[in-house]
C-alpha cells in the first residue's frame, strides 16, 4: 500500500479501507453507527450478546460522541438523526448508555381486564315481573338493599314458580324442593329465594356465607325465614303471609284469585 496514502490518512483523521482507499474517519464511524443502530433495533429475542457487541464497537472506535466532536466534518451530523432513541440517552452514545437503552425494562402492558359483570341484586327481573305480591316485592327489595350495605353480596334468584315448574322440580328429586305442585308459597307469589354471589359471580349456597345475618335482616322486615324451618332448613327462602296458613292461602286463591290473595296479604 502507498505509504503516502497512509500518511495522509493519519494526518487528516482518515481510515484506510480494504481496497486501499483513504476514507474520512467520520464516514466510517457513521457506517458503524448505522450498523450498531440496526443491531439495537432487532427484537430482543433475535439472539446475540448485546453488551459484548457494543463494548467491542466502543473499544475499536472510541466514544462516538468524542469522535464526532474531534472531527470537524461531523459537526452537522446529529446522532439523533440516525438513532431516534439517542435523545433518551442524553446524546452520548457510550457503551454503558447503549446497553442501558437496549436492555432497559419495556413498559408492561396493562392486563386486559374484562368489563366487570354487574352483580345485580335482581338479574332475572323477578321483582319487576309482576308475578310476586307487591308487599313481598317491597320487603325483598329492602332485604337486598340492607344486606348489601352490610357487605352481604346477594341476589334474588327465584320468585314466582308455576305449578308446572313446581311439579318438575318436585319429581326431579334433585333436592330443590320437597313441596309438590300447589304446596309451595312460590306458586302463589308469596315466596322468594335469596342467595349469595361467589367470587366468580355465580349464585352460591355455600355454608361459608353469612346466612345467619341474612336471615336476621329478613325477620327484622317481617319475613318468614326458611332457615328456621324445623323439617328442613332452607336458608335462601323467604316468604310473607301474615296470619295465613298455607291452607288459607290456597282457599283464597281458588275462590277469589291471585289479585285478591295479594290484597289480603298486603292488608294483613
Model description:
This protein has 268 residues and is an alpha+beta fold. It has two domains: 3-103, no CATH class; 126-266, Muramoyl-pentapeptide Carboxypeptidase, domain 2. It has eleven helices and seven strands. Strands 3, 4, 5, 6 and 7 form a five-stranded antiparallel beta sheet that branches. Strand 1 and strand 2 (22-24) form a beta hairpin. The longest helix is centred in the N-terminal third of the chain and has 16 residues, at 25-40. The chain is rod-shaped. The termini are far apart.
Q: Give the total of beta strands.
A: 7
Biggest β-sheet strands, sense, barrel:
5 strands, antiparallel
- In round numbers, the mean pLDDT is 76
Count of alpha/pi helices: 11
* CATH T-level fold name of the largest domain: Muramoyl-pentapeptide Carboxypeptidase, domain 2
- Strand percentage lies at 5-15%
Molecular shape: rod-shaped
CATH architecture annotation of the largest domain? 2-Layer Sandwich
Helix fraction by DSSP (H/I, runs of at least 4): 40-55%
Measured distance between first and last alpha carbons: 118 Å
Number of domains: 2
H/E element order = HEEHHHHHHEHEEHEEHH
CATH class of the largest domain reads Alpha Beta
Radius of gyration in whole Å, from Cα? 41 Å
Amino acid at each position: 500500500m502507498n505509504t503516502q496514502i497512509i500518511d495522509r490518512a493519519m494526518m487528516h483523521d482518515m481510515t484506510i479501507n480494504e481496497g486501499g482507499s483513504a476514507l474520512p474517519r467520520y464516514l466510517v464511524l457513521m457506517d458503524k453507527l448505522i450498523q450498531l443502530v440496526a443491531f439495537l433495533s432487532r427484537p430482543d429475542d433475535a439472539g446475540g450478546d448485546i453488551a459484548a457487541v457494543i463494548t467491542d464497537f466502543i473499544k475499536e472506535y472510541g466514544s462516538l460522541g468524542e469522535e464526532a466532536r474531534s472531527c470537524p466534518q461531523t459537526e452537522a451530523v446529529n446522532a439523533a438523526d440516525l438513532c431516534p432513541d439517542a435523545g433518551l440517552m442524553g446524546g452520548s452514545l457510550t457503551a454503558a448508555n447503549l446497553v442501558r437503552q437496549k436492555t432497559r425494562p419495556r413498559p408492561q402492558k396493562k392486563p386486559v381486564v374484562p368489563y366487570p359483570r354487574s352483580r345485580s341484586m335482581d338479574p332475572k327481573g323477578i321483582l319487576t315481573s309482576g308475578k310476586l305480591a307487591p308487599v313481598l316485592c317491597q320487603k325483598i327489595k329492602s332485604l337486598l338493599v340492607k344486606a348489601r350495605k352490610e357487605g352481604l353480596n346477594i341476589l334474588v334468584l327465584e320468585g314466582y314458580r308455576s305449578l308446572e315448574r313446581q311439579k318438575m322440580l318436585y319429581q326431579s328429586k334433585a333436592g330443590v324442593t320437597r313441596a309438590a305442585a300447589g304446596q309451595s308459597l312460590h306458586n302463589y307469589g308469596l315466596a322468594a329465594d335469596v342467595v349469595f354471589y361467589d367470587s366468580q359471580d355465580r349464585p352460591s349456597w355455600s355454608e361459608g356465607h353469612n346466612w345467619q345475618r341474612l336471615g336476621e335482616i329478613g325477620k327484622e322486615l317481617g319475613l318468614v325465614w326458611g332457615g328456621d324451618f324445623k323439617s328442613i332448613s332452607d336458608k335462601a327462602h323467604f316468604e310473607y303471609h301474615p296470619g295465613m296458613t298455607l291452607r288459607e292461602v290456597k282457599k283464597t286463591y281458588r275462590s277469589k284469585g291471585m289479585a285478591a290473595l295479594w290484597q289480603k296479604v298486603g292488608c294483613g
